[in-house]
Amino acid sequence: MPKTQDPGETLCVLPNGTLLALAVLALVSAATAQTARPVLDSIEGHLAAGKNAAGGRDNTPDFYGLVTAICVAPLNAPARPDAPAPRMNPNRTSAYLEPKRAFDDLYWMGTPSRSTWALTTSDGIILYDTQSVYDAEEVIVGGLKKLGLDPAKVKYVIISHAHENEVGGAKLMQERYGARIVMGAGDWDLVDQSVNGFPKGKPKRDIVATDGMRITLGDRSVTLYLMPGHTPGTISGVFQVHDHSKPLTVAYSGGTEFNFVNDVPHFDTYLASERKFAATAAAAGATIILGNQSQFDGAALKLRRLADRRPGEAHPLDVGAAAVARYFKIEDECAQAVRLKLLAQQHGAPQPAQ
Fold first, then answer.
1. What is the CATH number of domain 43-346?
2. pLDDT given for residue 92 in this prediction
3. pLDDT tens by residue, the chain, 354 residues
4. What's the CA gap between 185 and 4, in Å, rounded?
5. CA 148 from chain center: how many Å?
6. Which pTM was predicted?
7. In terms of DSSP bridges, do strands 220-226 and 19-22 run parallel, antiparallel, or are they unpaired?
8. What are the C-alpha distances in Å from 135 to residues 97, 138, 214?
9. Residues 235, 161: contact at Cβ < 8 Å?
10. Where in the chain are the domains?
11. How far apart are CA 15 and CA 222, in angstroms?
12. What HEC string does the chain produce?
């Protein structure tokens, strides 16, 4: 039957009577659609993409805290080396949460905002991050004892980055228990340069992390990856845990927020590192994303749900490979948004409302 012409569609009649439809309307509609929503490579477009990546099971956001920290109200400058020394909060113990056994061989200690993780092996413990200087005694030493673990068996301490809330307890673990401290070269330099950040003294320079380094203790290993950006020596890691003997892969994200020098080169470094580790986590089949700040991965809240877990139900921290990828997408998109904003400022362009 004869072809009916669609509105806005141009028809050409060829010599043999055949109609050739040129989809002009489709092109026009596509162009209109692009102007009706935020352009993808724009500040608004990247922020929208980052925020939309937070969704989780049953429409409950997996990473609401991450979105808030880097998409809604991001930090934009590093602390000065001569910033005032951290002070003891007289009410700090009100923030301490009960330590939890997260998996067969991984334990959590911390507060609603900070995490320390203890990976048990056949020959001792690998500790990941150490809280602040005034919290380490009660959160880590006290927490390990509450969990039935011996702090003296901590053989390695991996510091994801040398901010006060991650490196604060390194000296304690090093001097009291003889633990080896692992940190990126740039972050050992940050420790050396800090004037007031270590009111109880600094840890002595020890193991310098390299890209792909394996920290092996007994039957377990953590593979480290250099991720400069959040700090010059930020390191992330990949390791296995077990959930009722089932092996699962963890991607440990070493640094997240934008509290570094905010300029385009620093964001280029941050984005390159984030994309590198996102690809590493995907290749490793990671279904768990963890870090040093529990408001980002939801660790403190999710671990409370373990007591109500039913047989066959997924572990609350085992969010799946797609969710791990969404975590990195949030970082990527919101970092791109700030980078574009900085570029616009360099060229004197007006800034859109956010």
1. 3.60.15.10
2. 86
3. 444 444 333 333 334 443 333 333 333 333 333 444 566 789 999 999 999 998 755 555 689 899 999 999 999 999 888 889 998 988 888 999 999 999 999 999 999 999 999 999 999 999 999 999 999 999 999 999 999 999 999 999 999 999 999 999 999 999 999 999 999 999 999 999 999 999 999 999 999 999 999 999 999 999 999 999 999 999 999 999 999 999 999 999 999 999 999 999 999 999 999 999 999 999 999 999 999 999 899 999 999 999 999 999 999 999 999 999 999 999 999 999 999 999 999 987 665 555
4. 70
5. 29
6. 0.86
7. unpaired
8. 12, 6, 28
9. yes
10. 43-346
11. 71
12. CCCCCCCCCEEEECCCCCEEEECHHHHHHHHHHHHHCCCCCCHHHHHHHHHHCCCCHHHCCCCHHHHHHHHHCCCCCCCCCCCCCCCCCCCHHHHCCCCEEEECCEEEEECCCCEEEEEEECCEEEEECCCCCCCHHHHHHHHHHHCCCCHHHEEEEECCCCCHHHHCCHHHHHHHHCCEEEEEHHHHHHHHHCCCCCCCCCCCCCEEECCCCEEEECCEEEEEEECCCCCCCCEEEEEEEEECCEEEEEEEECCCCCCCCCCHHHHHHHHHHHHHHHHHHHHHCCCEEEECCHHHHCHHHHHHHHHHCCCCCCCCCCCCHHHHHHHHHHHHHHHHHHHHHHHHHHCCCCCCCC
Torsion of CA 263, 275, 240, 298, to 10 degrees: 60
Residue whose C-alpha is closest to residue 252's, from 280, 220, 211: 280
Contact 243, 103 (CB under 8 A): yes
Residue 26 forms beta bridges with which residues?
none
pLDDT of the residue at 349: 64
First vs last C-alpha separation in the chain: 53
The letter for the amino acid at 345 is Q
